[in-house]
Amino acid sequence: MGSSAAAARALRLSARCARTLPAVQAGTELRHRASADRRNLSVQAAAEAGKLKSIDDLPGPSLPTTLYWLFVKGYADKSHLLQGVQRSLYGPIWRSRFGPFDIVNVASPELIAQVIQQEGRYPSRAELPHWKEYRELRGQAYGLHVDTGPEWYRIRRALNPKMLKLREVSAYAPIIHQVIGDLLRRIEVLRSLSQDQVTVSDLASELHKFGFEGISSILFETRLGCLQEDIPPDTLRFIAAVNEMLTLSETVVLFPRWSRGVLPFWRRFVQAWDDLYDVARSLVDRRIAEIQAQVCSGEPAEGMYLTYLLSSDRLSRAEVYISLTELLLGGVDTTSNTLSWALYHLARDRGVQDRLYGEVSAVCPDRREPITEDLSRMPYLKAVIKETLRLYPVVPGNGRFVSEDAVVVGNYWFPKKTQFHLCHYATCHDEDQFVDAEVFAPKRWLRAEAPGSVCGRAAPGFYRHHPYSFLPFGVGVRACVGKRVAEMEMFFALSRLMQHYEVRPEPGAPVVEPKTRTLLIPSKPINLRFLPRA
Ligand code: HEM
């Protein structure tokens, strides 16, 4: 264990030495520091003058109250709902303490904006001591989620260009369409095997395979065949490991280090991470071998994401492994759950589905595959995805660990190293921000439409929600690196599914509520009927 941790440290040190910040950047950093110091002095002065309250003045539940809510009232897997309950009890900012956590919850867009504005140059979501411990145990690089400060930023800058630039991401359209073609064939097979010849059961699990195939075809430039009849064992292993790791991550962090050998959680957590990492590493290695073979035979080594990352030479091999593991981890459940919820609502709302179908067939007649340029003429398609993410933000609560400076939020002063929890689920479901907040109404996102009613109720101010009340991909330099890829996958998949099928719920299908397992996921299987369009 000691030697692998030392290897990781050596790797990080050598990376640091090789990439000393250029003078210009250092200058900017000094200026940034100076202005932060000035702000800090005025914050400190205000606090000392007694104008500001302190963290100890915040309202919030005691430990027994929290335990009561979680385990007696049953909010343990519905922590997204607890945000709204606690906001109504304590107001838009409150403190909760639980095990090793001491958290300041923020549940109004104005206060969330204040936290983000003070997040500093290298924002951090949360300290993940148990993820760090695992990486040190295995001698791996830290990667995006664990690394902090300039080290995080260096990795992020290497990953951004082929993920966040629209022009670059458009190059992935053909491969995404190929994968969607496989999804359509898979749906045909599943329908034909079902009792009534139209139902696809547990849609979310099928869309997980689609999500895995989609993102890995971009990242690893390899088709894995996740949507074929015989699903590759590594795909199943990865999907199971994501579930296990995310579930255990919430538990492991509560227990002290000495319990690692006594309780079963840590061992299972390590095994889940091993599976995630091994799958990603073997995909990277497979592609590297292909590239080497291409180069040896004089062929140009062309590719998409991984080829670019390797050839840019900005990350060490260990950093490439962990970055690809993290991109894969971020890119499967997020898009697949969002698509599941979108289809779930479209099936229940014929009006919305007809309108979406009308838009898709007007822009892409005769089932023409949409191209990136078509998307600017599909505002309703975008509105459907936005509305889905508003009702079901996959990341229902985000974090900011403000480590560099003291900050002021509301009229409270917080010392540095305060952990903030940004309650996005609560703000997305806030009636003050979104009229008829619990109703699936994509048209609320269409600015061109005259303000009217969502469900028969007049709604002046309809569109005027605060921009920080809806941040499904986060915000600022730390925002989701896969946003553009995710949107493209979801826009194309949904429009092609609409071209081919009308979706309907099973007769007597139950209402499916979301539950929290770090991410917001369906609490029961979603089964839908896929009726072929004429
Ligand atoms: C519906 C789809 C998705 C949603 C709603 C989503 C949402 C988010 C959110 C809220 C964050 C935190 C941002 C912040 O702290 O401000 C995040 C981070 C991240 N996402 Fe996504 N995501 C999605 C798809 C993807 C995809 C497809 C990928 C991979 C290609 C991905 C990879 C990541 C990574 C690696 C991070 C960490 C970035 C960092 O810490 O620098 N996500 N995502």
From TrEMBL:
Example of a GO MF term: oxidoreductase activity, acting on paired donors, with incorporation or reduction of molecular oxygen
Keyword Transmembrane helix: no
Keywords of the record: Heme, Iron, Metal-binding, Monooxygenase, Oxidoreductase
Cofactor: heme
Name of the protein: Uncharacterized protein
Keyword Iron attributed: yes
Name of a matching Pfam family: p450
A GO cellular component annotation in the UniProt record: mitochondrial inner membrane
Protein residues bound to heme: 480
Family: Belongs to the cytochrome P450 family.
Database matches in InterPro entries: CYP11_CYP27_families, Cyt_P450, Cyt_P450_CS, Cyt_P450_E_grp-I, Cyt_P450_sf
UniProt cross-references to PROSITE patterns, sorted A to Z: CYTOCHROME_P450 (PS00086)
GO biological process: C21-steroid hormone biosynthetic process; cellular response to peptide hormone stimulus; cholesterol metabolic process; cortisol metabolic process; glucocorticoid biosynthetic process; vitamin D metabolic process
